[in-house]
Amino acid sequence: MAKSAVFILLATCVASLSALSPLSRSLDGLPADRPLNIAHRGSSGMLPEHTVEAYQLAVQQGADVIECDLAVTKDLLLVCTHDSWLNDTTDVASHLEFRDRVQTYRVDGRRITDYFTIDFTLDELKTLRKKQDRSYRDQTYNGEFPMASFDEYVAVAKNVTNGRTIGIYPETKNPDFFNSILAAHNTTMEEILLESLQRHGYTEATSPCFVQSFDEDSLRFMSGRTELPLIYLTPVGLTNTKLAEISTFCSGLGTSKDTIVQVNPNTMKIIQTSDFIDRAHSYQLEVHAYTFRNEDQFLARDYGSDPYREYEMFVEIGVDGLFTDFPWSLSRHMEYRALRGSAISSHRLPYLALMTALTFAFSFNARY
């Protein structure tokens, strides 16, 4: 009798906790019962980032959303690349026909001498080939794939034939830099992006598209011109006052995973978890955490070199989406959680509360 009572108590506790529902999400076709698998620059852990091939691979590996940083070209088109300069991720330096394109610009307070997208037409940029800029990753695909244009990126999301909806997640990157040049053309990076999104049919609050930026002014500008959900990127935690302010023009936050699970950079051990997600949710802001990487150097030692354990911790804490360089790993982890088919797989189930219930139950059982 005592043993039965223990398991009834435990089941009741777990069922009560699992009844907590995730933050409401209503983007057409995207899953609302679990966190989003956001492929960071495509499947960038396996292929050179921001290429059609990396985006396609991410979709094949189960990503819900493919993410894209944007830059502007000389002919006022959008291209997918993490930086406004080119040397780090392309073979531009080997193209002698472009040797006179080196320029020095100030970007986000830094003077950078390099080749810049704004000095190349899209056709010229398409002659370049991408390379893997992280030396500890596979270098065998260097020189094989061209840069992806924004239109090509969107086409990957729209041309899925298995009935799935794939979301897009473009970012206005370095908008101040580009807008200082685009002023001569009476346009802005934001206007070019919103016009492109409208042309592709992304116009409604429920369209499967998030628009992100680290630049608050860029988001404020777009908030008056689109109903699409806007995401404010921040590497640090925000005060409640700032969260309230951001919630007036954004639908969510993209934040460093370190603001949620704090890790000592010297010992690589977890110090504590924060209340950032709960505070953001209290202002109806989704939280998408970045960036999850499989390599051991990016994992707290507490995870035992197992990226699944990191994913599990963030999902249990209640994150709404995860930016990952390895969408296949996250997809497999989500499949594992679904197969478990128990209350522990609930998106919003608080991990510590569950552990408390289990500890109590087993302690009770041991005594009785």
Structure description:
The chain has 368 residues and is an alpha/beta fold. It has two domains: 1-20 and 350-368; 23-83 and 145-348, Phosphatidylinositol (PI) phosphodiesterase (TIM Barrel). Helix content is 33%, strand content 17%. It has helices spanning 2-18, 52-60, 122-125, 150-158, 175-182, 189-199, 216-223, 240-246, 276-282, 307-317, 327-340, 351-367; strands at 36-39, 65-72, 78-80, 103-107, 110-114, 148-149, 167-172, 211-213, 230-234, 252-256, 261-263, 270-273, 286-292, 321-324. The strands form three sheets. Strands 1, 2, 3, 6, 7, 8, 9, 10, 13 and 14 form a ten-stranded mixed β-sheet that branches. The protein has a two-stranded antiparallel ribbon with strand order 4-5. A two-stranded antiparallel sheet has the order 11-12. The radius of gyration is 22 Å and the shape is globular. 40% of the residues are buried.
Largest sheet: 10 strands, mixed
The class by helix and strand makeup works out as: alpha/beta
Low-confidence stretches: 1-22, 343-347, 354-368
Q: What's the CATH topology label of the largest domain?
A: TIM Barrel
Figure out the total of helices: 12
Q: What is the architecture of the largest domain at the second tier of CATH?
A: Alpha-Beta Barrel
Summary, kept brief:
Helices cover 33% and strands 17% of the residues. It is α/β, with parallel strands linked by helices.
